[in-house]
Specification:
The chain starts with a helix and ends with a helix. The strands form four sheets. It has a six-stranded mixed sheet with strand order 9-11-10-12-14-13. Strands 5-1-2-8 form a four-stranded mixed sheet. The protein has a four-stranded antiparallel sheet with strand order 4-3-6-7, with no helix packed on it. The chain has four domains: 2-210, no CATH class; 218-350, Sandwich (Immunoglobulin-like); 358-514, Collagenase (Catalytic Domain) (3-Layer(aba) Sandwich), CATH 3.40.390; 521-596, no CATH class. The protein has 621 residues and is of the alpha/beta class. The longest helix is centred in the N-terminal third of the chain and has 25 residues, at 92-116. The protein is 35% helix and 19% strand.
Length: 621
């Protein structure tokens, strides 16, 4: 009885702590309420035992508990959408920042303990305190890596508390280590969104100090300028040739400043920039092209063609080596070119913004350096039709924001409108023998497909956008003829005045922005786009070659593979449904219906929604 009286605080906080970590394991918001009670009692306990740093830390815990509850609760009901705050990976810049903060805090707390207290364990006490300050912040943001932090804290704290004669608490922290390991595995399965991790965890402490050590500092390698690289891709169905056409430069860099050296998606091709002196990769970019799509057509078996391609990259401070790689439908390299870029090269042509180009913000959420900049470009609009174009742009924005995750993440985007009048109204429709003189010479019947609307004039497109903040392009064609097209990390085009324009714009933005594949099928392709022996790089299709890398983690236990359509929950029930990527056999999609399959679908399926979230985070975190 005397033992229980002497250790009642220890026992009570132990039980509360056990409840807390079990709720954390489940990612339950109620852990914050339990944590608040535990922390108040902990203040008393640690003060009595002379563990002053931990005592002071409890006050910080209380503040972070309030913040964590507010963040989880507020974001789970944003704009009336009842949705859990997603589990994500900690962004690289924040990982580096908090690693530095941890090291500073460790030293500062150690100095305070040795200078102003009678602490007998200043190194361990200051270590767990500093690391816990970082850990609770990571937990409040629901970062997966917070488990690594707590494992390190728990191991050291377990030893420390046995040493300080707090046995129940010490035993609890030993149990914490086990639960934390399983908690990490559970959170991995629960993750709603993620960005690609950058480095393996060699040890728990090394994880905190060295995770994301390869993250690139934009200001170290790049100027606040854009380097525009114009290439010509040419060949036939068997050959790919890459030629550098011209290099240009303009003020301001409006692309991503995070995850510079990594790729979220493989794409149909990749651009890799290395520092010439060190060989270090400082920027990577993936893309798809009309040229590669054309290579799968019958026409490519009997003629060679060339296509313009333009890539925008941050302007380097020092000489770099740039490698352009093109792959085939088997994801095998078919064309490659490497060339050197010296930022002092006098032949890199300066581009100045055309004062005659009129542009304005439709919506501005913040600085272009932190947001995703989307530009709307007018095609086939006459000068007097500016109001019509601006109305069309706003309707498209509303269509995008009617879909998750664009709705809840709309504050990550800036939208710009560029009114560029054409000589004639409308666009060319060859199958109707209609030809128009427009700014971008856009045309239906791309690859002899009546509804495929594209432009081949990419250099002209980027010329007129010089100096404007943009990284993703939406071209609105002034026509009511049904059609559109979207190319990953290039542009999308849609017929603005067809009654299906809104779903088409959303669908095509899924292509151009997030790299999503078409989920419909007609079996009318000249060449198979998705061979049975190759896993598609697009996140919403699988051939089952590497299904674990796709949406296996989102399926309920016991779901059959392949999955027989039930006709129920057609937009939300995740399975493996045969038919997609233009092929009825051998290619599988994640839901029965989705915005990437039919215009009638009001939403993206959960897999496509997650893929878009990942892309938004990749470009902004």
């Amino acid at each position: 009885m005397e033992f229980l009286i002497n250790h009642w605080l220890d026992i009570t906080t132990t039980l509360l702590g056990l409840a807390y970590i079990l709720l954390e394991y489940k990612a339950s918001i109620w852990m914050w309420a339990v944590g608040a009670v535990m922390q108040i009692l902990g203040i008393v306990l640690y003060y009595q035992k002379g563990v002053y740093a931990d005592c002071g830390m409890e006050f910080y815990y209380l503040a972070m508990t309030a913040y964590g509850y507010w963040r989880w609760k507020t974001l789970s009901n944003k704009e009336g959408v009842k949705e859990e705050l997603p589990i994500t990976h900690i962004p690289m810049p924040l990982a580096l920042l908090w690693t530095a903060i941890f090291l500073v805090l460790w030293f500062a707390i150690w100095w305070l303990l040795t200078s102003f207290t009678d602490s007998t364990v200043p190194i361990a006490d200051s270590f767990t305190t500093a690391l816990s300050l970082v850990g609770i912040w990571a937990l409040a943001h629901k970062y997966l890596e917070q488990w690594f932090v707590w494992i390190a804290v728990d191991v050291v704290t377990c030893v420390l508390y046995f040493h300080k004669d707090i046995p129940f608490k010490a035993s609890l922290y030993g149990l914490y280590v086990v639960i934390a390991v399983f908690g990490y595995l559970r959170w991995q399965r629960m993750m709603k969104q993620t960005s690609i991790p950058k480095s393996a965890v060699l040890s728990i402490l090394l994880c905190l100090c060295c995770t994301y050590a390869q993250a690139q500092d934009f200001d170290k390698w790049f100027q606040d300028k854009t380097l525009r690289l114009d290439y010509t891709f040419s060949g036939d169905n068997r050959n790919q040739y890459i030629s550098l056409d011209e290099m240009k430069q303009s003020n301001g860099w409006f692309g991503r400043r995070t995850n510079l050296d990594s790729l979220l998606l493989l794409g149909g091709g990749q651009l890799c920039m290395k520092d010439s002196e060190t060989g270090q990769v400082i920027y990577r970019h993936s893309f798809s092209t009309l040229f590669q799509e054309w290579q799968t057509t019958e026409e490519a078996t009997r003629v060679q063609k060339s296509f313009e391609n333009v890539f925008l990259v941050p302007f380097p401070k020092r000489p770099v080596e740039i490698t352009i790689t093109l792959t085939d439908t088997h994801n095998k390299v078919k064309g490659e070119m490497m060339h050197r870029v010296d930022p002092q090269d006098i032949l890199i042509r300066p581009l100045s913004s055309d004062k005659s180009t009129k542009w304005e913000y439709l919506e501005k959420s913040g600085d272009s350096r932190e947001k995703i900049d989307v530009v709307f470009v007018a095609e086939g609009y006459l000068k007097r039709e500016k109001k019509v174009f601006m109305r069309d742009c706003r309707e498209c924005i509303e269509a995008l924001k009617a879909h998750e995750p664009f709705k809840s993440m709309s504050d990550r985007f800036n939208f710009v409108a560029v009114m560029l009048p054409s000589q004639e109204q409308g666009v060319s429709i060859p199958h109707k023998n209609i030809w128009k003189e427009t700014l971008l010479s856009s045309s239906f019947d791309t690859f002899y497909s009546n509804r495929y609307l594209t432009t081949l004039r990419l250099k002209k497109l980027h010329d007129v956008l010089a100096g404007i903040p943009y990284e993703h392009i939406i071209i609105l064609a002034n026509t009511d003829n049904y059609g559109g097209g979207g190319i990953y990390n290039s542009y999308l085009m849609s017929a603005a005045h067809n009654n299906q324009n809104k779903p088409v714009v959303v669908h095509e933005f899924g292509h151009s922005f997030a790299g999503l594949a078409d989920e419909y099928y007609y079996d009318d392709q000249y060449e198979t786009m998705y061979p049975a022996d190759t896993e598609p790089w697009e996140p919403n299709l699988t051939t089952l070659v590497d299904f674990k890398s796709k949406w296996a983690d989102m399926m309920d236990e016991g779901v059959q593979v392949p999955t027989t359509p039930s006709g129920n929950n057609v937009y939300t029930e995740v399975g493996v449904y045969e038919g997609g990527g233009y092929q009825s056999k051998g290619v599988y999609r994640p839901s029965q219906e989705c915005r990437m399959k039919v215009n009638q679908a009001p939403v993206f399926c959960p897999v496509c929604e997650r893929a878009i979230r990942r892309m938004i985070d990749y470009q902004t975190k």
